[in-house]
Amino acid sequence: MAAVVATGKLHASASSQDDVWAAQLEAAVASGDAAATHRLLTEQPRGSDPADPDLLLFACEHGHAAVVECLVRDAGLTPSCVEAASAFSARHSTSPAVWAASPLHLAAKNGHNAVVRALLKAGAVPGAADKLGLTALHRASERGHTDVVRTLLDAKASAGAARDNGTTPMYLAARDGHAAIVTLLLEHGADADASMMPVRNAEAGITPLYAASGRGHSETASLLLAAGAQVDRTNTLGTTALFVACSNGFADCALVLLEAHAQPDLPGGRNGSRPLLAATERGHMRCVSLLIEAHADPTWRYASGKTALELGCRILVSQRKSGAPVSEGMGETIRLLRTAAQPCFVTRDGFARPPADATPADTTPAAPADTTPAAPADAAPADAGVIALSGEAKASNDAALAAVLAAGPAAATDLDT
Q1: Which residues pair with 352 in a beta bridge?
Q2: Helix and strand numbers, DSSP H then E, in the chain
Q3: How far apart are CA 334 and CA 336, in angstroms?
Q4: What is the 3-state secondary structure (H, E, C) of 344-361?
Q5: Contacts for 22 with CB less than 8 Å, ≥ 6 apart
Q6: Rounded distance, CA 21 to CA 129, Å?
Q7: Secondary structure letter of residue 43 according to DSSP
Q8: pTM of the model as a whole
Q9: Are 96 and 130 a contacting pair, CB within 8 Å?
Q10: Among 29, 186, 223, 328, which is least packed by CB within 10 angstroms?
Q11: Using alpha carbons only, what angle is made at residue 405 by residues 400 and 410, rounded to the nearest 5 degrees?
């Protein structure tokens, strides 16, 4: 648009007085010259066409606030002209996302707070939606323009406005890690747990916490959890924020979620995997370590029959045999899993491993001496006692894998895959 306006090509000819005036006005707007714009508007030839709405859109998009005030005041251009904006964008923009934008949307998207203020003062509706169902607050929140977001919220734009698929300003700000905007939206009543709705075949039920965790925005995740976001809420595929954070290797987010008491063994995705398996598959050692510390079960078997330890070994073998680069952290990941997969006990209050220097026999809790009546021979174990031994999965490993584990990951080249 800059080249179009600056060269006066919005009009086919400059031979008439009207066309000369129009070309001069376009040049004044393009350069952001408010004084020249005002002078030309007051000297408009009689009978000439009114000022082109495209000029207002151009000034809004490029942040010429004083020119915007002139065009609204002196030319009578409407500050909420969605129809004109659609025509403008269809002619001069290659981005479909801009085609339905009003002047307010263009100014908000580009972070021009002074222009936003001028448009609101001139009567622009702060919560008006464009033809995509998005408000100016959506646009500013997505781009991280904190001052514009504050201006729109002060003008009573709805913090919880949602388009037809459930997209809210909160979702967009959380997804892109704009923590300051998330804070502003929360202060104005936005729902920290509002989820997306189904659109075609996309995953539905994605919350702001899920979106932030999936992109590694730990500060944003902390804000949402403090505001009441459900840490273990799943999308429609059953995937939690912890699963997607571990799958993508965002250990800082995983730590935030685990400290908020996220359950480490909830399945996720269409195939029912778990965070520990997903982190192992991609060699995300820090996530594996955090999950083990949170008592994720290293002996759980995937649908294929493999544990996370077996999967890690087979990946390592496959990479070495194929000559592919070994995943960074895979060797250390296997070591952690090997240590965690030693025979362990499950108590009624959760998963617990024995100390590293203890044998399974040493870890059986002894009954307090003479403090409780002896239980009948067929009685169930006491609540605080051991109720099951969970080393069976490890014992069922095939002989080849057992040999590899005994020798350490470096010997894995002999393991059949």
Answers
A1: 345
A2: 22, 3
A3: 5
A4: CEEECCEEECCCCCCCHH
A5: 8, 10, 11, 14, 48, 49, 52
A6: 34
A7: T
A8: 0.75
A9: no
A10: 328
A11: 100
Pairing label, strands 345-347, 386-389: antiparallel
Contact 220, 179 (CB under 8 A): yes
Q: What angle do CA 85, 90, 95 make, to 5 degrees?
A: 95
Q: For the chain, 417 residues long, give each residue's pLDDT as a single digit of tens.
A: 443 444 444 444 445 777 888 899 999 999 999 999 999 999 888 777 777 888 998 999 999 999 999 999 998 888 865 444 444 444 444 444 444 578 999 999 999 999 999 999 999 999 999 888 899 999 999 999 999 999 999 999 999 999 888 899 999 999 999 999 999 999 999 999 988 765 554 557 899 999 999 999 999 999 999 999 999 999 888 899 999 999 999 999 999 999 999 999 998 877 788 999 999 888 898 999 999 999 999 888 887 778 888 888 887 777 777 777 766 677 778 888 888 876 544 333 444 444 444 444 444 444 455 544 444 444 333 332 222 333 443 343 343 344 444 444 444 433 333
Instruction: Give the residue from 266, 286, 296, 299 showing the smallest Cα distance to 333.
Output: 286
Determine the Cα–Cα distance for residues 96 and 87; give it in Å rounded to an integer. Answer: 12
Closest residue by Cα to residue 381 from 372, 391, 392: 372
Residue 188 CB contacts under 8 Å (≥ 6 apart), including other chains: 153, 159
Assess contact for 262 and 241: CB atoms under 8 A.
Answer: yes
> Which two three-digit tokens encode residue 62?
């490029």
Q: Is 67 helix (H, G, I), strand (E, B) or coil?
A: helix
Q: In whole angstroms, what is the distance from residue 95 CA to residue 81 CA? A: 19
- Cα(9)–Cα(26) distance, rounded to whole angstroms? 9
DSSP 256-300: HHHHTT--TT--BTTTTB-HHHHHHHTT-HHHHHHHHHTT--TT-
Closest CA to 107 of 95, 92, 124: 124
Residue environment code for 71-81, b if the CB has 16+ CB neighbours within 10 A, otherwise e: bbebbebbbbb
Q: Is 340 helix (H, G, I), strand (E, B) or coil?
A: helix
In the block, residue with structure tokens 């622009």: 124
Burial label, 274 (beta-carbon count in 10 A; 0-12, 13-18, 19+): buried
